[in-house]
Specification:
Helix content: 55-70%
Order of helices and strands: HHHHHHHHHHHHHEHHHHHHEH
Largest sheet: 2 strands, antiparallel
Distance between the termini: 23 Å
Structural class: mainly alpha
């Protein structure tokens, strides 16, 4: 872990001959255009959530009409939040999303707590959970009516994690092209559900919408219903994690967000309408997978399309999550919150190979116990803690730094409103359904302070870390970005006697 120095980097082309001799610098490529940016957001958002979450939103809110309002309100809330992120992303043109915005406004300690919570538990556990869902759908056809052995599920999940990690490590364009293809496929699958619902409406199947708001529960259940719906929209902020890799970010960042989020909101709303015209509220709430139940009732012999759609959607979501989460790890390391090796990029492929590998290893470790769904659930609410800090960062910038150029500007009322919403969404599960696990989550977050002060703030035990870093650089063929190997690393190589 390091403090970035101001000394000039010295080129070491004998070690890494593929580094650009003309500039003497190594940077991640700006390979993400508008279409790829839209595909990344849409492809990451549309995962297994829309095929599963409608049951839980309805269960908490109580009526079809209120459920549809929750889904539309969640989309509008994410669009409102995205407007704040657009201003942040066009003012602070650095990758890293919440981490970099918190760091630039509130300092390294809160930013470290974000990276500590996200990189070591939040992101890998989410990837592991999605990979288990993917593995279950992949393996199920080979076992018919019999349950799939847990070992098979875990091995298939591990294989999917390794496959996606390799894809993202090989080439940025390859990862974005795969994302584009899977995004197109999952939109088609949702359109099948939408069209099926339209046919049913034309044929007069509107029983669920008679007395649509009957059974709506009180205001206390709205917060938890929002949490369930917002989980299906998770990924709306992922583009800000790779601002440095977007072509013309001041133009493409706002365009991509303002295209993708209304599109997803419209699709989600229409898909939920289709569920309600095909199934009664009781059928939806008793279904373990509402999309599969819908497919069996509406598509008949073509019901296999739905499991295939879930596989495509989940694979695309994992790929998008890997693409963006590796950047969080990479940026946090580049700013000194994580070991130096995680801030480096492959000298040939220009991808954050160490960061991607680290995320993959943690996700594979989390597959071993298997039963960590509750961990994902309890850590999901922490996301809104850091979203709240991010909106507070924008409020801080508007008050303290009004002179900064802003290609895209939102009224002060928007980040203030989102800050209040974030506080409400954090408090809702604690008030409505308090559990001891939330205390454990809070203690884990605060335990990062015990790591921050000795290792980050006072930089103890750095000699052994530097030695390991040099060996890993040579093994993985990686180098620091934005500069050649600095003089410190050159000195360490000479001292160790590797060359």
């Amino acid at each position: 872990m390091r403090s970035r120095g101001k000394e000039e980097a010295l080129p070491l082309f004998t070690l890494f001959p593929t580094m650009a001799a003309s500039t003497g610098k190594l940077n991640l490529k700006r390979d993400v255009g508008l279409i790829s940016a839209v595909s990344l957001i849409v492809g990451t958002i549309i995962g297994s959530g829309i095929f599963m979450s409608p049951e839980w939103v309805l269960r908490y809110i109580g009526s079809p009409g209120a459920s549809l309002l929750i889904w539309m309100a969640c989309g509008c809330l994410c669009m409102t939040a995205a407007l704040s992120y657009v201003e942040l992303g066009t003012v602070i043109k650095e990758s890293g999303g919440e981490y970099i915005y918190i760091l630039r406004n509130f300092g390294p300690a809160p930013a470290f707590l974000y990276s500590w919570t996200s990189v070591f538990v939040g992101i890998p556990s989410s990837i592991a959970a999605m990979s288990l869902s993917l593995a279950q759908y992949i393996a199920a056809p080979f076992y018919g009516e019999s349950p799939v052995p847990p070992a098979v599920v875990k091995c298939t999940a591990a294989a999917s994690i390794l496959t996606i990690a390799i894809i993202n490590s090989l080439n940025v364009k390859l990862a974005t092209r795969i994302q584009n293809i899977f995004t197109f496929a999952k939109i088609l699958s949702l359109l099948v559900i939408v069209i099926g619902g339209m046919v049913l409406i034309i044929n007069g199947h509107t029983e669920s919408f008679q007395n649509a708001f009957q059974g709506t529960r009180g205001i206390g259940s709205v917060g938890i219903a929002f949490q369930q719906g917002l989980w299906s929209y998770s990924g709306w902020n992922n583009l800000n994690y790779l601002t440095e890799e977007i072509k013309h970010p001041e133009v493409n960042l706002p365009r991509a967000l303002l295209i993708s989020l209304p599109l997803v909101t419209l699709l989600y709303s229409l898909v939920n309408v289709s569920y309600f015209v095909a199934l009664s509220p009781a059928e939806i709430m008793s279904s373990g997978a509402v999309a599969a139940t819908w497919g069996s009732k509406v598509l008949g012999s073509w019901a296999w399309i739905i499991p295939l759609s879930v596989v495509l959607s989940t694979f695309g979501s994992i790929n998008g999550s890997f693409f963006t989460s590796g950047r969080i790890c990479y940026i946090a390391a580049r700013e000194g919150s994580l070991p130096d090796i995680l801030s480096m990029a492959h000298v040939n492929r220009l991808t954050p190979l160490p960061a991607l590998s680290f995320i993959a290893v943690i996700a594979l470790i989390l597959l071993i116990p298997g039963d960590f769904g509750s961990i994902v659930q309890y850590f999901s609410f922490t996301a809104w803690i850091f979203y709240g800090l991010t909106f507070a960062a924008l409020v801080h910038m508007k008050i303290k730094k009004p002179h900064l150029p802003r290609p895209f500007k939102v009224p002060m009322a928007i980040p203030v409103f989102m800050l209040i919403v974030s506080i409400c969404l954090v408090m809702a599960p604690l008030i409505e359904n308090p559990q001891i696990e939330y205390l454990f989550v809070g203690l884990f977050m605060l335990s990062g302070i015990l790591i921050y002060f000795p290792l980050i703030r006072f930089k103890l035990c750095t000699c052994s870390v530097e030695r390991i870093t040099v060996h890993l650089q040579l093994l993985l063929q990686v180098a620091p970005t934005e500069a050649n190997l600095d003089s410190l690393v050159q000195k360490k190589i000479a001292e160790i006697g590797i060359i």
